[in-house]
Automatic annotation (TrEMBL):
Stated name of the protein: Alpha-protein kinase 2
Native source organism of the sequence: Antrostomus carolinensis
Cellular compartments annotated: Basolateral cell membrane
Enzyme class: transferase
Single Gene Ontology MF annotation: ATP binding
One Pfam match: Alpha_kinase
Biased amino acid composition, Polar residues: 165-177
Highest taxon above the source species: Eukaryota
Organism placement in taxonomy: Eukaryota, Metazoa, Chordata, Craniata, Vertebrata
Alphabetical list of Gene3D superfamilies matching this protein: MHCK/EF2 kinase (3.20.200.10)
Domain annotation Alpha-type protein kinase: ranges: 1-153
Family: Belongs to the protein kinase superfamily. Alpha-type protein kinase family. ALPK subfamily.
Protein's UniProt keywords contain Iron: no
Keyword set includes Lyase: no
Record's keyword terms, sorted: Cell membrane, Disulfide bond, Immunoglobulin domain, Kinase, Membrane, Repeat, Serine/threonine-protein kinase, Transferase
Length: 196
């Protein structure tokens, strides 16, 4: 948990260094640090400690296909979190995605990281690869993506879907096969009794 959150925090620092100087970008989301504490005299010898976040706790990004939070589209923090995800995705060539972004305002905690099956530069995430596929399919760029000059994922995803649908168009479908059968081969099935 500490390794994942602090790895995401390092990406967030680099993102902030690129985004903050841009005119009109404003405040950037920050992933708060989390620390592992060893307490040898306690029944539970290890614990994590982090800053307490006070205020309305909001989930800004999608963690699975069932969970959709519209606040991410409507709020500045939500849009900047989605842009951060897009930025990380692009910087890692689609191999890594910081996900499950949640917190209070621009302060985030308890994030997750999804990586491709082989990982990314020796790092394996704690979330399913399907989060990367889902992000690629659902992400809608916003003005902050444009300010950072990020490439639209829509065109890439649409090209992949178009290539897949072109392949399936070349395969015969059941109606084509049915029409190709001689009439005598179809007749017995047309008159099967339903009295059984």
């Amino acid at each position: 948990e500490c390794y994942v959150q602090n790895t995401a925090r390092e990406y967030a620092k680099i993102y902030a260094a690129e985004a903050e100087p841009l005119e009109g970008f404003g405040e950037v989301p920050e992933i708060i640090p989390i620390f592992l504490v060893h307490r040898p005299a306690n029944n539970i010898p290890y614990a994590t400690v982090e800053e307490e976040l006070v205020g309305e706790f909001v989930k800004y990004s999608v963690r699975d296909g069932k969970e959709v939070n519209f606040l991410r589209r409507d709020s500045e923090a939500g849009q900047k979190c989605c842009t951060f995800q897009h930025w990380v995705y692009e910087k890692t060539n689609g191999s890594l995605l910081v996900t499950d972004l949640q917190g209070v305002g621009m302060k985030l905690t308890d994030v997750g990281i999804a990586t491709l099956a082989k990982g990314y530069k020796g790092f394996k995430g704690n979330c399913s690869i399907s989060f990367i596929e889902q992000f690629r399919a659902l992400h809608q760029c916003n003005k902050y993506c444009e300010m950072l000059g990020l490439k639209s994922l829509r065109t890439t995803h649409q090209k992949q879907r178009k290539a897949t649908s072109m392949k399936s168009k070349n395969l015969p479908n059941s109606s084509t096969i049915k029409k190709a059968l001689p009439k005598k081969a179809r007749e017995p099935r047309d008159f099967i009794s339903s009295e059984h």
